[in-house]
TrEMBL record:
<dbReference type="InterPro" id="IPR001314">
    <property type="entry name" value="Peptidase_S1A"/>
</dbReference>
<keyword id="KW-0720">Serine protease</keyword>
<keyword id="KW-0645">Protease</keyword>
<dbReference type="GO" id="GO:0004252">
    <property type="term" value="F:serine-type endopeptidase activity"/>
</dbReference>
<dbReference type="Pfam" id="PF00089">
    <property type="entry name" value="Trypsin"/>
</dbReference>
<keyword id="KW-0732">Signal</keyword>
<dbReference type="GO" id="GO:0006508">
    <property type="term" value="P:proteolysis"/>
</dbReference>
<feature type="signal peptide">
    <location>
        <begin position="1"/>
        <end position="25"/>
    </location>
</feature>
<protein>
    <submittedName>
        <fullName>Trypsin alpha-3</fullName>
    </submittedName>
</protein>
<comment type="similarity">
    <text>Belongs to the peptidase S1 family.</text>
</comment>
<keyword id="KW-0378">Hydrolase</keyword>
<keyword id="KW-0353">Hemolymph clotting</keyword>
<dbReference type="InterPro" id="IPR009003">
    <property type="entry name" value="Peptidase_S1_PA"/>
</dbReference>
<dbReference type="InterPro" id="IPR033116">
    <property type="entry name" value="TRYPSIN_SER"/>
</dbReference>
<dbReference type="GO" id="GO:0007586">
    <property type="term" value="P:digestion"/>
</dbReference>
<keyword id="KW-0768">Sushi</keyword>
<dbReference type="InterPro" id="IPR001254">
    <property type="entry name" value="Trypsin_dom"/>
</dbReference>
Amino acid sequence: MNFTKIGSFSGISLFAYLWILVAGGQQKSPAWSGYYMDNGTHYLLYEGPRIKKQSFLNISSNPAINALEAQDYLPTRIVNGKKIKCTRAPYQCALLYDGELICGCVIIARRWIITAQHCKIGKPGRYTVRAGSTQQKRGGQLRRVQKTVCHRGYSEYTMKNDLCLMKLKSPLKLGRCVRRARLPSRKMKRFPKCYLASGWGLTSANAQHTQRYLRGVVVCKVKRRKCRKAYRKAGIKIYKQMICAKRKNRDTCSGDSGGPLVNNGVLYGITSFGVGCASENYPGVYVNVFQYLLWIKKALLNY
């Protein structure tokens, strides 16, 4: 061990280094270019070398979206939410890349999950999905991803069509904490007023520690006209394929990216992007699942 080198570390770096030795090594995260350590309550995040082209700080090729997203320290977080049991959101899953959480996801069939396309940063074999657990790193069922089917019309610039389906190598076992989210009826005429958004993440915009347990928050739909007006100021267009939702001091920010927006077990939205944490000026933006019912059905049949 090079004690001279350790002596040059800051206090927190020294603590991190010693903990790594005990834990058996550091784990780098391709999503936010740091590594986690579990202290029993949180996963402590420490900055490390950035991995090029895998940083969620730039989720879009649109500088206006990235400038606003830069207000968020991490892309995966629920703000001001409360701990929830797995039975409250049994359709919720965690999308892991090389063993690290990068996004939320939603179970729609025993071998299929759905998430945001901007969460796809590598080959299918590097992804795993954890379902049936309130913890992102433990418990439940862990499945490897066999195939990804992403929407061909996805635009990194507009964030339009930000959807990706992932097929699991083996089916999930359904139970109290593992259930499929139902898709909206094609005959639906009106969206519900409020929804449950869930996932893992920070409790506030300035928090430094990623939450260990699943959290949920109720947000309510914002009229498209109002949402468009808000985002127009930032040079961002809101399309009919998007839903906006927020609640005062309770928003999903830009995460949990790929996570669910659900009412009574029906999946209405997938978290796409948002601005700031619980921003009063900008609602969270979700993919409007209703607009993609035919695409989802065809993908599940053809693959």
